[in-house]
Inverse folding.
């Protein structure tokens, strides 16, 4: 009989830069060893948000009892025109758009010890590499994340549709109006198709842009054509488009991202003139049935633009018991330099500047 190890042993910490092909391959290898293999931690997903002054990195902590994978964007201060040249190589970190955090898998009994070891190692790296602060958009499934040593802030609620129910029970778990709307769209003869190579990309972009305009979305939510082409070419096994056709015309469209256990409603929209035919209800129902066939357990629909708004209530109608809290995390890892940058930012605007309430890091507001 062999005794169970009570202490974590054989630890190894490294930070990998996705710009380096060898290190990117190492990142992908660790990601592929993770049972959940969440798309938001895939190196090619994080690379979608790279720019001249932002680079995709991942911190990996491997032990004999558990593994931590923490993807992030490292943002160099050289992009800020008020920062002096001697600080241009300093940086802060943020999660890319979507969900993130330091993911853990392995022995549940070792989670706290492994988490503590990871953050100690990460803090030492951040100090050596002149990282000043970090901002994280936490994944909804907190059981998959390490404990976080910084501040956690409740931002909103998101909706998750559990797909483990049988087909009939899933159907009856929707609000009555969803079942009514799906049947209505079918009576109109609407058809939902799956597009895995982006052949309807132009139609999707037209609908997406008009939807963003209708909702007065900020520039942050606008992505160009090259972004979506990169999603299809670099994440072919983790992305697909769903389109609803009315007489051959695309009237509702959505890009979904998916992992081994979860599918995400990512970006999409509906032609305003088609609202009455309820094409988006049909689309979301099609995503669910498709995902169930692939053995996927959860469908993350996201949240609204503001708490309890119409978009949020619409998503809730697909999963009346599926509310999850969405948190962000933030931490200052170099207090002295953070204060210095805050003062530089203020002085660059003649002392009149004040950061937007709740924005982090403040000097980027």
């Amino acid at each position: 009989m062999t005794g169970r190890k009570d202490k974590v042993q054989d630890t190894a910490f490294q930070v990998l830069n996705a710009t380096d092909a060898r290190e990117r391959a190492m990142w992908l290898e660790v990601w592929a060893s993770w049972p959940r293999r969440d798309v938001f931690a895939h190196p090619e997903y994080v690379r979608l948000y790279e720019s001249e002054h932002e680079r995709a990195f991942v911190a990996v902590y491997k032990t004999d009892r558990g593994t931590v994978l923490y993807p992030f964007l490292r943002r160099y201060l050289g992009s800020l025109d008020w920062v002096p040249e001697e600080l241009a190589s300093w940086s802060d970190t943020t999660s890319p758009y979507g969900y993130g955090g330091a993911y853990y898998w392995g022995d549940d009994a070792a989670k706290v010890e492994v988490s503590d070891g990871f953050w100690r190692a990460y803090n030492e790296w951040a100090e050596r590499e002149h990282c000043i602060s970090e901002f994280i958009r936490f994944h909804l499934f907190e059981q998959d994340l390490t404990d976080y040593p910084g501040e956690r802030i409740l931002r909103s609620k998101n909706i998750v549709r559990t797909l483990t129910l049988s087909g009939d029970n899933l159907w009856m778990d929707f609000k009555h109006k969803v079942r009514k709307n799906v049947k209505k769209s079918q009576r109109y003869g609407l058809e939902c198709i799956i597009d895995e190579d982006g052949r309807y990309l132009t139609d999707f972009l037209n609908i997406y842009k008009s939807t963003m305009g209708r909702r007065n979305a900020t520039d942050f939510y606008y992505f160009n054509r090259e972004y979506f082409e990169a999603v299809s070419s670099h994440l072919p096994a983790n992305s697909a488009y769903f389109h609803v056709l009315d007489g051959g015309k695309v009237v509702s469209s959505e890009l979904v991202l998916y992992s081994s256990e979860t599918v995400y409603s990512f970006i999409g929209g509906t032609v305003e003139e088609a609202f009455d035919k309820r094409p988006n209800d049909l689309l979301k129902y099609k995503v669910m049935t498709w995902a169930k066939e692939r053995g996927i357990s959860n469908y993350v629909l996201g949240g609204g633009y503001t708490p309890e708004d119409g978009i949020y209530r619409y998503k809730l109608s697909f999963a009346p018991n599926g509310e999850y809290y969405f948190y962000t995390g933030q931490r200052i890892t170099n207090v002295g330099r953070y204060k210095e940058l805050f003062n530089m930012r203020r002085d660059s605007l003649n002392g009149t500047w004040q950061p937007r309430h709740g924005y982090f890091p403040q000097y980027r507001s």
